[in-house]
Structures are given as structure tokens and as C-alpha cells.
Write a structure and sequence with these properties.
Layout lengths: L8 H4 L5 H9 L2 E5 L5 H11 L3 E5 L24 H12 L4 E5 L8 H5 L4 E4 L4 H14 L3 E7 L2 E7 L7 H4 L13 H19 L9 E6 L4 E6 L12
Parallel strand pairs: 1-2, 1-4, 2-3, 4-5
Antiparallel strand pairs: 5-6, 6-7, 7-8
Helix pairs in contact: 3-4, 3-8
The structure holds zinc ion.
Length: about 240
């Protein structure tokens, strides 16, 4: 079987990549929870890279205040459901990638069916209720969760894959109080692109650098810090 990987030629020549890595990407299935500030760069980068199947799940409609960062939408999209709108954009970017759009709110009772047979979950959510649901789903399905979050000029990134690493609830046992936070498109697109890189590492068979680690990036000073995360034996989700 020969496949036309010409459009991926510039990444196939990456160190340790080759046609094999590209074939693995083509066979991959990814679940993106939320298609907003983080979800847009994650989905676009995975589509450009040639991931075979991407599911995007969001229950929001496009609002004018999204347009400073959510670059898969424009003024003509206001009021439209985000996931099918993003799906149309992404299918035009790369017809090789199958994009499935789910217009659904992620809840504990529907999350397993939504994630289905994805190999990895990317957390691009803005609320902890749904984050806890995908965390528990990732543990049940034994798949990694790539967490990304932005508060103002600070970005956070971590990869959870219990039992070898802690889970999201070990680190955030209680949902922080959330309100409408300030956010800059350049920050969300940076964090989302980094989440996509970690997912690509995993899907091509490489090690994820942030597995069990937390990277905190302060974009007001450009200071980045990395911490090793510890499991909490008292964790209500993954502890004993
Ligand atoms: Zn835990």
C-alpha cells in the first residue's frame, strides 16, 4: 500500500519521524474537549499534521467576544454552533483528516460515549465540572489526558496518564472559582499548539515530555517553570 504523503514531506524528514510516524498519525483518533481558545489551535495543528480522525466536542455558539482568539471563526459565524462551524473550516484545510463534530455538553454520564475509541483526550475546556468528567473517562479508558489552561498572561500545561502519573484531581482536588478571565489570543494559541505537540509525540510513538509534569508559563515575564507532579494517595479519583 502506498500513500501519498507529499503534503507531509517537511515533517516526515524530522529526526526519528519518517513515513512510519506519518502512517501512525493517519491511523490516530483524538478527542478534543472544547473548541474555543485552546481547541482552535489544537484542532488546526492536528489537522495540518494529518491526524486521521479528530472529534471536536463543544456545546457553545460563536459569540463576538470569542473572535480575539478563536481563529476558526469569523464575523459571519456569530450565533452558529461552534463544532460544526470549526469542522467545515478544518475539512477545507485538510480533506485527509476526518473531523467529527459533536454539539454536546460533556457530562459524567455521556463522556464515555462521546470520547468513544479515541486514543487521547485533549483538555481545552474552561470549566472544572467537565474537566473532572474527562479526567475520570481518561482513567477508565487508560488513555492520556493533555491538560491546558490559561489565566490572563499565565499558561499551564500537564500530561496525566495514571497509574504512572497523578490525575487531574490529584493536582486540582477542588474546582477553582472561575469567572470571566482576561485572555489574549497569542497566549491561547501558544498553549494549544504545545498541547498539539504533546499529542503528536504520543500518537507517533514518542515520549511525551510533560507526562506527570506541570509547565507553568508566565507570558508577562517569559519565565517558564517545570515541576514534577506527585500522586496523591488520598485522591478521590485515582487513589486507593
Ligand atoms: Zn488522582
Amino acid at each position: 500500500m502506498t500513500e501519498n504523503f507529499e503534503r507531509y514531506q517537511r515533517q516526515i524528514i524530522l529526526d526519528g519521524w519518517g513515513a512510519e510516524a506519518q502512517k501512525r498519525l493517519k491511523k490516530s483518533r483524538v478527542f478534543i474537549a472544547g473548541i474555543g481558545g485552546l481547541g482552535c489551535p489544537v484542532a488546526l495543528n492536528l489537522t495540518l499534521a494529518g491526524v486521521g480522525h479528530i472529534t471536536i466536542c463543544d456545546s457553545d455558539k460563536v459569540d463576538v467576544t470569542n473572535l480575539n482568539r478563536q481563529f476558526l471563526y469569523n464575523n459571519t459565524c456569530i450565533g452558529l454552533e461552534k463544532s460544526p462551524t470549526a469542522q467545515r473550516y478544518l475539512q477545507r484545510v485538510n480533506p485527509d483528516t476526518q473531523v467529527e463534530a459533536l454539539y454536546e455538553k460533556i457530562r459524567p454520564e455521556n463522556v464515555d460515549a462521546l470520547v468513544a475509541d479515541a486514543q487521547i483526550i485533549i483538555d481545552c475546556l474552561d470549566n472544572f465540572e467537565a474537566r473532572y468528567a474527562i479526567n475520570q473517562c481518561a482513567i477508565r479508558k487508560k488513555i492520556p489526558l493533555v491538560h491546558g489552561a490559561v489565566w490572563g498572561m499565565e499558561g499551564r500545561l500537564a500530561v496525566f496518564h495514571p497509574p504512572n502519573t497523578p490525575c487531574l484531581s490529584c493536582i486540582f482536588p477542588e474546582a477553582p472559582v472561575t469567572s470571566s478571565t482576561p485572555v489574549l489570543g497569542a497566549v491561547t494559541s501558544t498553549i494549544g499548539s504545545m498541547q498539539a505537540i504533546e499529542a503528536i509525540h504520543f500518537l507517533t510513538g514518542e515520549k511525551m515530555a510533560l507526562k506527570g509534569r506541570l509547565l507553568i508559563m508566565d507570558f508577562s515575564t517569559m519565565k517558564f517553570q517545570q515541576f514534577k507532579l506527585s500522586k496523591k494517595s488520598s485522591c478521590m479519583v485515582c487513589g486507593h
